[in-house]
Amino acid sequence: MNIKAIDLLVILLYLVTVLVIGIYLKRQAAKSKNDYLLGGKSMPFWMLGISNASGMFDLSGTAWMVAIMVVYGVKSIWLPWLWPVFNQIFMMVYLSMWLRRSNAATGAEWMLFRFGDRHGAGLSHKIIIAFALLSCLSFMAYGFIGLGKFIEIFIPWKVIRAFLPFHLPPAYTAHFYGILFTVFTASYALLGGMKSIVWADMLHYLIMVIVCLSVAAMAYMALPGADSLPVPSGWANLFFGKDLGLDWSDRLPAAAAKLRNDSFTPFGYFFALMAAKGILASLAGPAPNYDMQKILSTRSPREAALMSMIVNLVLLPTRYLFITGIAVFALLYFRQPGISAAIGADFEKILPAVLNTYIPSGLLGLVLIGLMGAFMGTFAGTFNAAQAYFVNDIYLRSVNPGARNRQISRISYLSGIVIVCISILLGLLAKDVNSILQWIVSALLGGYIASNVLKWYWWRFNSSGFFWGMLTGIICALVCPHILKDTLPLYYFPLILGISIIGAVGGSLATKPTDIEILKTFYRTVNPWGFWGPVRKEVLKNDPSFSPNNDFARDLFNVALGIVAQTAITAIPVFGILKMPQETLMATAIFLTSSLILWKTWYKNLPHH
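Predicted structure:
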């Protein structure tokens, strides 16, 4: 066990600092609903961007990325397209600006701006609140149990048992840590609202930069050369054909078994489907969680776009310095008893096993803060989003529309306490409801895409279409795993998409169009491209000076170039640590060339306000 008193002291100092931030910003947050939920829309874009990136540096995602880096090698850079990682490029190029122009406080309020409140338009509002609250609570419950298990590896029960006035069976250690950190995180988020979350994320990101650079430097020095890693041929190659072509069977049978179990074969077809799904998910815009709340908190549409750009620049290079560093340690020392015994056949245990064995005291405390802080940032941001939906879209809309500031403040605290209690309860039940929750999240995201793509680009799409598109997609995604057992969810995604498109289009055409005045207001304000012909005609009839958005081709070009730049900036630290100078220079040249073109085709064309 590598953890020492200095590591525990470093962790305690961090926790106290974060709590002080929350207490200091409490008065500012209490000024108004906007100050609490959106930081008064006064924070600079770079702070919100770093905060967003900090929250995305999540614990379970990082453990998974380390596992796939060890097994898939440099090709693992493509696998986060499953999420998809490039949705931030779509946000940067145009979607963040479109979203911010609405001036809404939440995704549900945006629904009223898009569809109005008549002819059953409340259906879209209600289903998005249900979606947002359910997904927020699910993510918080997963985070709860994941963090508890992670801390338990480093700080076993025997280390802290002597300091506690009560006895607890060792089986509940993870739950104890989960409750402790969940309550702590909720405290600073509850006190200072969005501003305290952003400031705590800034501190966390600074620590992560130190951690990532330190781990990367240690791995670079430990690696004699690119050829010294015990990996199969093709491991260090970014590109692939129809098949992966990685044969681990002689070197590491457990890795060969993981490749088989992942079922990402044939990899070329899997990649094509993953990219197609990713593009559709990106066209839909952000899900109604902390990502959307940060965009709505920016000062202007221009700053919303710049915020999404910052996320790409600060998240990927630092994260991959850390991931590649840990993977190098794992591969160099895999056969040593400390690593192989801790991992067994579960490659997601590589991260804690390497940290526990090879990271020196003092730095280990910072690493734990970095990975705990990622949980705390994600949890606090998701918690703030759940509060926003409860206060803004349930309490102020249906219970007490004329509420004064003091009442809003009180209900914010009360709803926060209830949300935390529910997420802890779900976390405690996670062993039993894990599979159910997992499918709720997968189903919600599967059913989310069709309706949320159409809402931006097609004028005839209405609130009923949104409701039926979401509902049919969610039901289909819940049923599919029981009918298509042992099938990767990605492979039946086209079926879910097809059924939800039928629900969305059928639901829209079977009911009246959205009121033309509401559509005109939306179109004039957001000015999207897409199938808006009849609305554009009406707007131009009233206001001939209006300039419609004709940037479709340019936006498409910028998205494609942005994805190339994003992949290159991800590859630079990977090739650098693996001591592959030619590939590092090539990736750097591609990134710099793409950035220069984007500066001319994207940055120069951003609105000035």
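Summary: The mean pLDDT is 84.
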